[in-house]
Specification:
The complex is a heterodimer of chains A (920) and B (264). Chain A is mainly β. Chain A has 4 domains: 225 residues, 3-Layer(aba) Sandwich (Rossmann fold), CATH 3.40.50; 202 residues, Beta-galactosidase, Chain A, domain 5; 215 residues, Beta-galactosidase, Chain A, domain 5, CATH 2.70.98.10; 213 residues, Beta-galactosidase, Chain A, domain 5 (Distorted Sandwich). Chain A contains 8 helices and 67 strands. In chain A, the strands form 11 sheets. In chain A, strands 16-17-18-19-28-25-24-21-22 form a 9-stranded antiparallel sheet. Chain A has a 9-stranded antiparallel sheet with strand order 35-36-37-38-48-44-43-40-41, with no helix packed on it. Chain A has a 9-stranded antiparallel sheet with strand order 55-56-57-58-67-64-63-60-61, with no helix packed on it. In chain A, helix 2 crosses helix 3. Chain B is mainly α. Chain B has one domain. Chain B contains 12 helices and no strands. Chain B is globular and about 60 Å long. The two termini of chain B are 31 Å apart. The chains are: A mainly beta (920), B mainly alpha (264). Chains A and B meet through strand 5 and helix 2 of A and helix 2, helix 6 and helix 12 of B.
């Protein structure tokens, strides 16, 4: 059943033109030969540019106009919602107007009575219903008119773009009502520019251009054509390829396939925030000029109001692909991005990371972000809507994040959004896939490519990081031959690498100073590290202590295959230190050690506070070699101090670390009088070298050796120690005849001094020894008296005031001596055991007054030895004891204690006789 | 045949919307006095004041010797007022009621006609208040009251036709109201309101006779003032002429209607 039938209707307007006072009349045909039938229950929207004749057609249907030619037949009651306020009298109240108008619509009194409350309720005017409508706001007016128009129960409802008036809520209410009327089977004809509504509401769209019906069909199919008609014609271009049609219309781009609209609303556009005018600008606000390059390629230039070129689009439609480049020329554009609105029939989203079903619209008008994907974004519609090809968005030359949104349910569209890069250029392509398989294949390939790309990127990143690290390491590294020293600023350690294997451990090379005033230890842990490479062979490390007035300066210098280390202190103020050491902490792969005098392993067993000392007999040596033992590729490590013999104490100990053990080689300075004054300026604390070499050898000690001999008795003097031989057999052991003195808690042994002979012949010698750290020297006089008697006298020269606590004169004997006697009386046997304890008293058998007694030792098949102090000294003790386990000998000793300040001068130190009693 | 069905359809529509017509007339009638203090009473006050001033000018100043001269003038003045009031309002009715014109379903000829109808109501109101004066002057007036209603009907048809014509004309010629006010002034003086037709010079009589309002004024005066039956022949000729005039006007309106809608 037809509601509206229009046959060949023509409608003209006579328009008066007044140009400079001249009046001319012109006939303008608003509608030309309109043929239209609208069936009962159809919802039809009339779309077209302003002035295309939509409203005229609507008026014709409404009977407000009569056709000049042709026929218009309308069957049923028509209610028209056209210009606001039509049919209303402003002086009358809302209620009066309702009844007057209802009459005009032909409503009976009874029908009106029934609808009146509904009308009033829907209009929602409150008490204003009884006020003259001249007091109404536009929105109230609209609601009243709308309410009236729909409640007079029309058969045909005509609506002309009046819904744009009023607030969003009222608008939505009205739209909902229109849907209800549509569902109630009413015939609705509306004129709208709201294409989303047209798609949602209408069964049919009629496109009118210049008074003619151009297209008539499903809204989705008609809207693409509509885009071609609206706007400035110079800004419209259509690209077609196969079944695809792309319409560029003044900064908006719509896409359709087989007459189905893929895009929604505005389609695609570029927006940015302009700080100059303080608002968002869309590409659709610009005026556009198009250069058509070919059938399927256009370049569009958009200019802003000031004629400045704002953006350039290049759009090219290829087979199953749309290439779209944008270039934004605005210098001040914040957050430029492109949005493309897509049909809500797209239900599935494909991204690089995952595929997801697009949820239903949940917000009213706010957008809901679905996913952001780098590189590409795909949309697919269910198979049944085969007319929607699958879409794949991909940037052309780089990776760009694509974001997918749902709009609110009012707009009902999917949105693809992409932000422009800093260069304000965006180039991407949309690929269309009529077949799902091709689409999925490509997605798979893209994902695979992406995965590979990411892997490569990560590798490249790692490589770059490594190179960077290496470069940094190199800058802090000094190489010499097969090893290098690396100042690791990050972990605050100076490390040693041998053939790229770290051999340092714990704290690496480490220095510590104890300040006298505060007793605080100052070490690189507290310092700011500065690494300077002065020249390729030299690396400087400066430790700045922020709150202190001095700096430590370490200079590593590579010479041949060695690295020379010089540690100095630079101070602005005078201060004192009471202790200072430099320590090399190395891996426990080193198992052996060797000094000029001795060698040993590092198999220490007893730990005190995680430290196990390794006893070195002669700890005033300057050189040590650490060996890793056979079968280990680490070459022996030689560490040498250049400072003189006796200025540093060398100690070796093992330290437990969290991840194993370190072997520590420690050079601590001998600070004679409890404190060392450091004057402003620069003071060297250590100078020495490190070397890794298999053929490393220790420098020979400067030895002064003298031999006394008479018959079968011999005496060899060897730099502060004496060995006694009888019949070619050594009666002494290790240190033999030696002296030790203690000053300020430090022991100075005779063999640590530097000796020279003043006189040497077969029976008599005079030797003089000096210590570097103490202003004391000794002169030894040794003489063979008679058969088996060796006279030993020690005289001490003191050059400066010095504190002496203990003076000893000792004879260390072979462990073959089993029995000891005092003054000729056998007292007992030496024990067979030796203590392992370091620095605690050894086994002491006797400690008594010396007097005339003499200490003797005897054993089987070995000449007895008597050691006798020939001076009568009240404060001298005589001691017999076993040594500790490193010497494994018997000790006969005279000791003076509690001696204090000695003024410069000559002092008798000791005078005694060693008598060898041959058993024969 | 087509024309017949057109008119049939037209008449059916008119009939369907008869209630609307009455509503519109009432609404215009109400609108006329909406917001005024005296309201309906203006319909009485205007002719009364007019009569009083006539009395002063013609009887006291010009010293006219005619029995009941005031009533004489009034009997001509009432139909004249009906005529001019109706036309001056109806002429602009399409323009002033353009909002209704745009409404659907309402036959557009209702607009000027409702305006005339509202004037008729106004006229009737005035008449009801003034009629007692005539009755007091001449009791016989009561006997010919039925004839008066027929005269009013004829007069209404004539005015309606004229109103339709003018209102259409006004849409195309917007300065019509100014022309009308001048025209009405001239027309007033060639219509025997202040004078009787016998007083007019013979050479001027033809002017009186081609003036349709002369005939209406004469008949009104015969009924109200002289209380005598008018000659029936003249009476019905006047009726037929009015009807014919109305139909011609209506036809013109129908022909001009499409264009009229565009001009609004």
């Amino acid at each position: 059943m037809k509601r509206v039938e229009i046959k060949g209707a023509w409608e003209k307007y006579l328009i008066k033109f007044i140009n400079q006072g001249k009046v001319s009349w012109e006939e303008i045909w608003a509608l030309e030969d309109i043929n239209l039938e609208i069936d009962k229950g159809q919802t039809v929207c009339l779309i077209g540019q302003n002035g295309s004749g939509k409203t005229t057609l609507l008026r014709l249907i409404a009977g407000m106009l009569l056709p000049d030619k042709g026929e218009v037949n309308v069957d049923g009651r028509v209610s028209a919602l056209m210009e606001l306020g039509a049919g209303f009298n402003p002086e009358f109240t809302g209620r009066e107007n309702i009844s007057l108008n209802a009459r005009m619509y032909g409503l009976s009194d009874e029908a009106l009575a029934g609808s009146l409350t509904k009308i009033i309720d829907f209009a929602d005017l409150g008490k204003f219903i009884d006020a003259p409508i001249k007091y109404y706001s536009q929105g109230m007016f609209m609601r009243l008119a709308f309410s009236l128009a729909i409640f007079v129960e029309p058969d045909i409802l005509l609506i002309d773009e009046v819904l744009s008036v009023g607030d969003e809520e009222a608008r939505q209410k009205c739209i909902k009502m229109i849907f209800d009327l549509k569902n109630a089977g009413k015939t609705i004809v509306l004129v709208t520019h709201d294409l989303d509504m047209a798609v949602k509401l209408c069964d049919r769209a009629i496109l009118i251009e210049k008074g003619k019906i151009i297209k008539d069909g499903l809204p989705k199919k008609i809207i693409p054509y509509y885009f071609e008609t609206i706007g400035d014609k110079s800004g419209v271009a259509v690209l077609g390829y196969d079944k695809y049609r792309i319409v560029f219309n003044n900064g908006k781009l719509s896409i359709s396939y087989e007459d189905n609209l893929l895009s929604r609303g505005f389609g695609g556009s570029l927006s940015f925030f302009s700080p100059c005018i303080n608002r968002w600008l869309s590409s659709s606000d610009l005026s556009w000029k198009i250069n058509r390059l070919s059938e399927n390629k256009i370049i569009a230039e958009g200019s802003s109001g000031s004629q400045a070129l704002s953006q350039i689009w290049t759009v090219e439609l290829l087979e199953n692909q749309l290439k779209w480049d944008m270039e934004l020329k605005e210098s001040l554009a914040v957050d430029p991005h492109m949005d493309l609105f897509l049909s809500p029939d797209y239900k599935k989203l494909f991204t690089a990371d995952k595929d997801m079903d697009i949820p239903d619209f949940s917000n009213k008008s706010d957008w809901q972000e679905l996913y952001a994907s780098r590189d590409f974004l795909g949309f697919s519609a269910p198979d049944k809507s085969a007319s929607l090809p699958l879409l794949l968005f991909k940037a052309n030359d780089r990776s760009v994040p694509f974001r997918a949104f749902n709009t609110g349910y009012i707009q009902e569209a999917r949105v693809m959004q992409a932000h422009l890069g800093d260069d304000r250029i965006f180039s991407f392509s949309i690929r269309f896939f009529p077949s799902r398989k091709d689409f999925e294949d490509l997605i798979w390939i893209l994902k695979e490519e992406l995965r590979q790309k990411r892997e490569a990127e990560e590798q490249e990143k790692a490589r770059a990081q490594k190179a960077k690290d290496e470069e940094r390491i190199l800058a802090q590294t000094l190489q010499a031959g097969n090893f290098r020293v690396f100042a690791d600023v990050d972990s605050r350690k100076v490390k040693i690498y041998f053939r790229e294997r770290e051999v340092s451990s714990g704290k690496g090379i480490y220095s510590d100073i104890c300040m006298a005033e505060s007793g605080v230890w100052i070490n690189p842990d507290f310092a700011q590290w500065q690494v300077r490479r002065t020249c390729p062979e030299e690396l400087s490390l400066i430790f700045v202590f922020p709150e202190l007035f001095f700096r430590q300066i370490w200079v590593f210098r590579a010479v041949d295959n060695r690295i020379i280390l010089k540690v100095s202190l630079e101070t602005d103020k005078q201060f004192s230190i009471i202790s200072q050491y430099l320590r090399f902490e190395v891996s426990d792969k080193f198992k052996e050690w060797k000094t000029i005098y001795e060698k040993g392993d590092v198999a220490a067993k007893q730990y005190y506070n995680n430290i196990a000392p390794i006893r070195i007999k002669d700890n005033k040596v300057t050189e040590i070699i650490l060996g890793a033992g056979s079968g280990n590729e680490i070459a022996p490590l030689g560490i040498r101090s250049y400072s003189g013999y006796g200025t540093k104490t060398l100690s070796v100990f093992k330290k437990k670390e969290s991840n194993g053990e370190s072997i520590c080689v420690n050079y601590s300075a001998i600070i004679p009088r409890n404190a060392q004054l450091i004057s402003p300026g620069r003071v060297d604390l250590f100078e020495g070298e490190i070397v890794f070499s298999g053929g490393i050898s220790l420098s020979e000690p400067i030895k002064k050796t003298g031999i006394l001999k008479r018959n079968n008795l011999g005496f060899i003097f060897d730099s502060g120690r004496g060995k006694i031989f009888f019949d070619g057999r050594e009666l002494t052991k290790d240190l033999g005849v030696y002296t030790s003195l203690r000053s300020n808690g430090i022991w100075y042994d005779s063999f640590q001094g530097v000796w020279d002979f003043e006189c040497l012949d077969d029976f008599r010698m005079i030797a003089r020894g000096d210590w570097q750290c103490i202003p004391v020297s000794q002169t030894w006089i040794i003489e063979f008296l008679k058969e088996g008697c060796i006279y030993w006298k020690v005289v001490m020269d003191v050059y400066e005031v010095v504190d002496l606590e203990i003076q000893q004169a000792s004879v260390m004997l072979s462990p073959e001596y089993k029995i000891w006697e005092v003054s000729g009386i056998p007292k007992g046997y030496f024990s067979q055991g030796y203590t392992n304890d370091y620095d605690i008293l050894p086994f002491r058998f006797w400690n008594g007054k010396s007097g005339e007694t003499g200490l003797c030792a005897s054993g089987d098949k070995i000449p007895g030895v008597c050691f006798k102090n020939i001076r009568d000294e009240a404060f001298c003790n005589a001691i017999v004891e076993n040594t500790d386990s490193i010497y494994r000998g018997r000790l006969l000793q005279y000791q003076k204690e509690n001696l204090h300040k000695l003024l410069p001068g000559k002092y008798d130190y000791f005078e005694g006789v060693i008598k060898i009693e041959s058993t024969g | 045949m087509k024309l017949a069905s057109f008119f049939k359809e037209r008449i059916r529509k008119l009939f369907l919307c008869r209630r609307v017509f009455i509503d519109m007339a009432l609404r215009q009638f109400k609108e006329k006095y909406a917001g005024s203090k005296l309201g309906l009473w203006w319909a009485v006050v205007t002719p009364l004041l007019f009569a009083v001033s006539i009395n002063f000018v013609f009887i006291s100043v010009f010293n006219i010797q005619m029995p009941n001269y005031t009533l004489f003038v009034l009997s001509g003045m009432i139909p004249w007022f009906f005529f001019t009031n109706s036309l001056s309002e109806a002429a602009g009715s399409f323009l002033s009621n353009s909002s209704i014109l745009r409404q659907t379903l309402v036959p557009r000829e209702f607009i000027p006609m409702a305006s005339v109808m509202a004037s008729l109501l106004n006229f009737a109101m005035g008449l009801i208040f003034l009629l007692p004066f005539f009755i007091i002057a001449n009791i016989k007036v009561l006997t010919i009251m039925p004839l008066l209603s027929v005269v009013i009907l004829f007069h209404f048809i004539f005015i309606a036709g004229f109103a339709l014509l003018l209102s259409v004309l006004n849409v195309f010629m917007r300065d019509l109201p100014h022309i009308l006010s001048t025209l009405f002034m001239v027309w007033f003086w060639i219509t025997p309101v202040f004078y009787s037709i016998d007083m007019a010079p013979a050479s001027f009589l033809w002017v009186c006779f081609i003036n349709p309002m002369t005939h209406f004024v004469v008949i009104y005066r015969e009924i109200l003032f002289q209380a005598k039956f008018p000659p029936l022949g003249n009476f019905f000729i006047l009726g037929l002429l009015s009807l014919g005039f109305f139909l011609i006007s209506y036809l013109i309106f129908i022909l001009k209607e499409p264009e009229l809608l565009k001009r609004i």
